[in-house]
Design goal:
Structural class: alpha/beta
Number of domains: 2
Radius of gyration: 24 Å
CATH class of the largest domain: Alpha Beta
Number of strands: 21
Helix content: 25-40%
Largest sheet: 7 strands, mixed
Mean pLDDT: 97
CATH topology of the largest domain: Aldehyde Dehydrogenase, Chain A, domain 1
Strand order of the largest sheet: 14-15-16-13-12-18-19
Low-confidence stretches: none
Strand content: 15-25%
CATH architecture of the largest domain: 3-Layer(aba) Sandwich
């Protein structure tokens, strides 16, 4: 019998009031039903918000170092259970076990980093312009945060948001992707076992257009953090702007790896294979464009096609598999559509471009790693996010042209350049219009203790990870202490 899972609201695991559920299936074998998860009606949200507000009142008064100890315990539990959680994630979202283990490890690292930040929520103490007066700033929590996360990193991305939010003294309402709800239940169980007061976290499952929209527009939720599509993020941004909500958006990418003629080509080849086809291309930082200097273009493409064609496609739970399935049928259909668009625009499919054949692929949403050549900078496959294992190869003549091609797209998350020229390396760091630039490394691989995010349509200026995220989840308060015993007026002309 298929297991029915529940929401976590007001300190209890409860069935959805409307009795409606969403079926969660294994994308590698769709007859394998992971479970049924609540399709929460927005009418249930008020109870969750009221509970989260109570949780905030108590949790915000707990000293930050003590809050950090809870997150340290959460990191310990995730470390103990990494293998179990990795298998859960691979089963429900498809990426290979080495990647889901890394997903959990990123959450562990984030938990330990957050625990230490409980002793580092720094303010400033500065001189007053007046005598016998003290001036300082400090950081305060904001309230209830809505946390809305995608499917591709079912534990790592929630950890980037939830651990800092909680460390800063906020409470959360967590709406995971409807494609990876099982990982979310496990994650919340870990938080509760670590000692988080139950009303500090509310878990509500459901579709983004219903319960996600309700969270974004609820007046009792003053802060939001969203990772997902640019289109959805734009809609949330409009709501948040009207309602004066604190908002962090992490959205799309169209990331390029640039390979110069002096590069270590074997290293660059390893980088683009990992960047383009890791997580089946379903990363906001995935390498979607490969920019090759004309001198090495033909040689590199030949080696790339051979390697890409040799990648093992299949169920991510099998050790020999390199590339798992896409998350659902619509994602596979999108890849097929973009290959057709590329061909219509004059590109050539050098490998992949369609579904694999064979009985072992019959129940899954598989798509072959695909390399497109002859792509021009104005083609749709060179400019639009595909979110799948489809790599567009573009040829350039010199450094200036490569940088122009990188910068002319709508997005600005990640970029990469392979070169042994230190001058070109530092030019890339300065001139590539992205939030992240890697030198001699692929476009993926951010580290938990550094800020993560992009520019242009990729985000709205805030960063996840590192020290900057703690500024997002707090607000600055300034305090003045006047012990002069008399009225002093700042910014008034007086004779000393």
């Amino acid at each position: 019998m298929t297991e029915h899972f529940r929401n976590f609201i007001s300190g209890s695991w409860i069935e959805p009031a409307n009795g409606q559920y969403i079926e969660n299936v294994n994308p590698a074998r769709t007859s394998d039903i992971v479970g049924l998860f609540p399709d929460t009606d927005p009418s249930e949200l008020d109870v969750a918000v009221e509970s989260a507000q109570r949780g905030f009142e108590d949790w915000s008064r707990v000293p930050a170092p003590e809050r950090g100890l809870v997150l340290k315990k959460a990191g310990d539990l995730l470390s103990e259970r990494k293998e179990e959680l990795a298998h859960i994630m691979t089963r429900e979202m498809g990426k290979v076990l080495d990647e889901t283990r890394g997903d959990v490890q990123e959450a562990i690292d984030t938990a330990y980093y957050a625990a230490v930040e409980g002793r580092r929520l720094f303010g400033h103490t500065v001189p007053s312009e007046l005598r016998s007066k003290w001036a300082m700033s400090f950081r305060r929590p904001i309230g209830v945060f809505g946390i809305i996360t995608p499917f591709n990193f079912p534990v790592a991305v929630p950890s980037w948001k939830i651990f800092p939010a909680l460390l800063c003294g906020n409470s959360i309402i967590y709406k995971p992707s409807e494609d990876t709800p099982s990982s979310a239940n496990y994650f919340v169980d870990v938080l509760l076992e670590a000692g988080l007061p139950p009303e500090c976290v509310q878990l509500v499952h459901g579709h983004g257009e219903t319960i996600g929209h309700a969270i974004a527009s609820h007046p009792g939720v003053p802060g939001l953090s969203f990772t997902g599509s640019t289109e959805t993020g734009r809609s949330i941004g409009e709501i948040a702007g009207r309602m004066h909500k604190r908002l962090s958006l992490e959205m799309g990418g169209k990331n390029a790896q640039i390979v110069m003629p002096d590069a270590d080509l074997e290293l660059a080849l390893e980088g683009v294979l990992w960047g383009a086809f890791g997580t089946t291309g379903q990363r906001c930082t995935a390498t979607s464009r490969l920019l090759l200097h004309r001198e090495i273009h033909d040689e590199f493409v030949e080696r790339l096609v051979y390697k890409a064609d040799s990648l093992e496609l299949g169920d991510g739970q099998h050790a020999q598999v390199d590339v798992g399935p896409l998350i659902h049928e619509a994602a596979r259909d999108k890849c097929e559509a973009y290959v057709e668009i590329a061909c219509a625009e004059g590109a050539t499919v050098k490998c992949g471009g369609d579904q694999p054949t064979g009985k072992e692929f019959g129940e899954g949403w598989f798509f072959k790693p695909t390399v497109l050549t002859g792509v021009q900078r104005d083609h749709r496959t060179a400019r639009e996010e595909i979110f799948g294992p489809v790599l567009s190869v573009l040829k350039f003549n010199d450094t200036d042209e490569a940088f122009e091609i990188n910068n002319e797209v709508l997005y600005g998350l990640s970029s990469s350049i392979y070169t042994t020229d230190v001058n070109v390396s530092f030019r890339a760091i300065q001139e590539l219009d992205n939030g992240i630039t890697y030198v001699n490394a692929p476009t993926i691989g951010a580290e938990a203790h550094l800020p993560f995010g992009g520019v242009k349509a990729t985000g709205n200026g805030h960063r996840e990870g590192g020290w900057e995220v703690y500024e997002f989840y707090t607000e600055t308060k300034v305090a003045y202490l006047d012990y002069s015993g008399r009225l002093q007026r700042a910014q008034i002309d007086v004779e000393w």
